[in-house]
Amino acid sequence: MSDDLKVYNPNPAAAAAAHINGMAAYEALCKEAETDYEGFWGRLAKELITWKKPFTKVLNESEAPFFKWFEDGTLNASYNCLDRNIERGLGDKTAIIFEADGGEVTKVTYKELLAKTCQIANGLKAQGVKKGDRVVIYIAMSIDGVAAMQACARIGATHSVVFGGFSAQSLRDRIEDTGAKAIITADCQVRGGKQLPLKAIVDEALTLGGCDSIQKVLVVKRGDVAVTMKDGRDVWMADVVSGQSTECEPEWVEAEHPLFLLYTSGSTGKPKGVQHSTGGYLLHAALTTKWTFDLKQDDVFWCTADIGWVTGHTYITYGPLALGGTEIVFEGVPTYPDAGRFWKMIQDNKVSIFYTAPTAIRSLIKAAEANDAVHPKSFNLSSLRILGSVGEPINPAAWEWYHQHVGGGRCPIVDTFWQTETGGHMITPLPGATPLIPGSCTLPFPGIQAAIVDETGKDVPWGQGGILVVKRPWPSMIRTIWGDPERFKKSYYPEDFKGKYYLAGDGAIRDEKTGYFTITGRIDDVLNVSGHRMGTMEIESALVSCTELVAEAAVVGRPDDTTGEAICAFVVLKRSRPTGDEAKQIAKILRDHVGKEIGPIAKPKDIRFGDNLPKTRSGKIMRRLLRSIAKGEAITQDTSTLENPAILDQLSENN
Ligand code: WT7
């Protein structure tokens, strides 16, 4: 960060009214955590969570890195998100404002959401689901989706939401890995005016093998897509809940009881089932919603993420509800019926806190610059007071536009760095405290011991880049990889750091003067495309699984103005290298194949064909060279270890 970078200080009046009302308050919290780490988290866990049986011990490190938090306490997440608000007098307050793809609005109060949740919970029990069972949820953004997650939590079943954009194959993999007893889905999802089937994809997944654990498929009716119902296995949700009581005693679970599994990509192998706890997770969901978004009783909060991702879990299903907030749940897409949809929804619903991804902002900037009618200036966005960004670095130009045109120059932007594994925010500004510098996620959340180290685990000085780690366990951290504790240890607590530090997988640098963090990107083979995380190996496996065509494939990322990163695949076919139209046709076949294996989000943007890939004499693919070619850069690296230098020219040709 150079001296000429602008600093945006909190507006004094807004800051004074904030939960964390200045840097002194922030520093006092950091100090409190430093002086008495367990005391700090224990205090907050008592203040933010209602426990059935209070915990007596905050942190158990005896089986590190398998840490346990609030171990002997019991609670229920849905009680904390629903009943408790009603007991506080918020029963008639709107919990969710649901806006459908076509614009219809449905609101539910806390009382109504609780009744719905209880009916689904009772229905699940009647279908044989009980504490400890896993339930896969494959459904679009809806009140039913949120209520289904809450219903699982209510009866102690562990949910695993699979994003509606994943293919039958990906869904199958997740069903098999979780060993789920039931699936909750819908006939279809509605996006951009189209009804896209969901139940048919579930049917296909269940024919792919390995899904014998599934006993029931519960189907919500959303549209009018025809579905086939298998006798004895498939049931309509309306029939499941019909006649069920609107009351259901919560199952009081231990704090460490797995609330959910959520699959995410790693650098090797198949996606990993990140296991989250109930107590520690819920604490951080509530706490970060309170401090990072400064959520208050009269706010209207809108997180645009899908419940299929962790952002939707923490900042739709759990955090805002745990605080008794009012939130928007949006079914559709930002560009339908036009690219003014977000701005219109903020205006119509008087949204005060808005949380979205840089990729969405970048694509809406393009649309707004081409057409005044979808520019934020054509809408009344005066209700906004805080903006958030998540999922990937936000480039300073997009930050400035978001700040000026969406936030009217008055709303702080919280650039929140975190991961599926961290459960909630790790490094982020607090809106009433932190001076903002575009492009930096600023400082660690109070209590989070983020640091930058070298390969040996030694701290690097400010101003020097390194590896982002977290030095102490925190309540909402990943507990294990479902069914694979060894992979958990290897991925997150590697021996390089003597198993002491949590390895985020990102590189970072702290500003020499301010100590502010900037995330410099993944240091493993994980790509971030439109804020979606994907392993290069997964995409390579999908490509080579097209056995009739593909001999070999290597996938790398390259920078992209809109999606952040784009997927670039280098492919060697079993037949001769195609060019021209034929290359285009085969590229389309391969893209569709990847779409079918993983989902449309994994389709490579560029596919380049070669007679071979650049390899060392020992046969290792030289990915750094592929990265340069993908970017269209001249190769300046040392290529002396390369077996077949001529291949570089061939791959660099535009084909
Ligand atoms: C990876 C985690 C966080 C929930 C959604 C994505 C990147 C995330 C930021 C940010 C720079 C960011 C990192 C991280 N990332 N937020 N504010 N600035 N990079 O969760 O799919 O688990 O991906 O997203 O590379 O490791 P995820």
UniProtKB/TrEMBL annotation:
<keyword id="KW-0007">Acetylation</keyword>
<comment type="function">
    <text>Catalyzes the conversion of acetate into acetyl-CoA (AcCoA), an essential intermediate at the junction of anabolic and catabolic pathways. AcsA undergoes a two-step reaction. In the first half reaction, AcsA combines acetate with ATP to form acetyl-adenylate (AcAMP) intermediate. In the second half reaction, it can then transfer the acetyl group from AcAMP to the sulfhydryl group of CoA, forming the product AcCoA.</text>
</comment>
<feature type="domain" description="AMP-dependent synthetase/ligase">
    <location>
        <begin position="90"/>
        <end position="474"/>
    </location>
</feature>
<dbReference type="InterPro" id="IPR011904">
    <property type="entry name" value="Ac_CoA_lig"/>
</dbReference>
<feature type="binding site">
    <location>
        <position position="530"/>
    </location>
    <ligand>
        <name>CoA</name>
    </ligand>
</feature>
<dbReference type="InterPro" id="IPR045851">
    <property type="entry name" value="AMP-bd_C_sf"/>
</dbReference>
<feature type="binding site">
    <location>
        <position position="544"/>
    </location>
    <ligand>
        <name>Mg(2+)</name>
    </ligand>
</feature>
<keyword id="KW-0460">Magnesium</keyword>
<dbReference type="Pfam" id="PF13193">
    <property type="entry name" value="AMP-binding_C"/>
</dbReference>
<feature type="binding site">
    <location>
        <position position="506"/>
    </location>
    <ligand>
        <name>ATP</name>
    </ligand>
</feature>
<protein>
    <recommendedName>
        <fullName>Acetyl-coenzyme A synthetase</fullName>
        <ecNumber>6.2.1.1</ecNumber>
    </recommendedName>
</protein>
<feature type="binding site">
    <location>
        <position position="533"/>
    </location>
    <ligand>
        <name>ATP</name>
    </ligand>
</feature>
<dbReference type="InterPro" id="IPR000873">
    <property type="entry name" value="AMP-dep_synth/lig_dom"/>
</dbReference>
<feature type="domain" description="AMP-binding enzyme C-terminal">
    <location>
        <begin position="538"/>
        <end position="620"/>
    </location>
</feature>
<comment type="similarity">
    <text>Belongs to the ATP-dependent AMP-binding enzyme family.</text>
</comment>
<feature type="domain" description="Acetyl-coenzyme A synthetase N-terminal">
    <location>
        <begin position="26"/>
        <end position="81"/>
    </location>
</feature>
<feature type="binding site">
    <location>
        <begin position="391"/>
        <end position="393"/>
    </location>
    <ligand>
        <name>ATP</name>
    </ligand>
</feature>
<feature type="binding site">
    <location>
        <begin position="191"/>
        <end position="194"/>
    </location>
    <ligand>
        <name>CoA</name>
    </ligand>
</feature>
<dbReference type="Pfam" id="PF16177">
    <property type="entry name" value="ACAS_N"/>
</dbReference>
<keyword id="KW-0547">Nucleotide-binding</keyword>
<dbReference type="GO" id="GO:0003987">
    <property type="term" value="F:acetate-CoA ligase activity"/>
</dbReference>
<keyword id="KW-0067">ATP-binding</keyword>
<feature type="binding site">
    <location>
        <position position="522"/>
    </location>
    <ligand>
        <name>ATP</name>
    </ligand>
</feature>
<dbReference type="Pfam" id="PF00501">
    <property type="entry name" value="AMP-binding"/>
</dbReference>
<dbReference type="InterPro" id="IPR032387">
    <property type="entry name" value="ACAS_N"/>
</dbReference>
<feature type="binding site">
    <location>
        <begin position="415"/>
        <end position="420"/>
    </location>
    <ligand>
        <name>ATP</name>
    </ligand>
</feature>
<dbReference type="InterPro" id="IPR025110">
    <property type="entry name" value="AMP-bd_C"/>
</dbReference>
<feature type="binding site">
    <location>
        <position position="550"/>
    </location>
    <ligand>
        <name>Mg(2+)</name>
    </ligand>
</feature>
<keyword id="KW-0479">Metal-binding</keyword>
<dbReference type="InterPro" id="IPR020845">
    <property type="entry name" value="AMP-binding_CS"/>
</dbReference>
<dbReference type="InterPro" id="IPR042099">
    <property type="entry name" value="ANL_N_sf"/>
</dbReference>
<feature type="modified residue" description="N6-acetyllysine">
    <location>
        <position position="620"/>
    </location>
</feature>
<feature type="binding site">
    <location>
        <position position="311"/>
    </location>
    <ligand>
        <name>CoA</name>
    </ligand>
</feature>
<keyword id="KW-0436">Ligase</keyword>
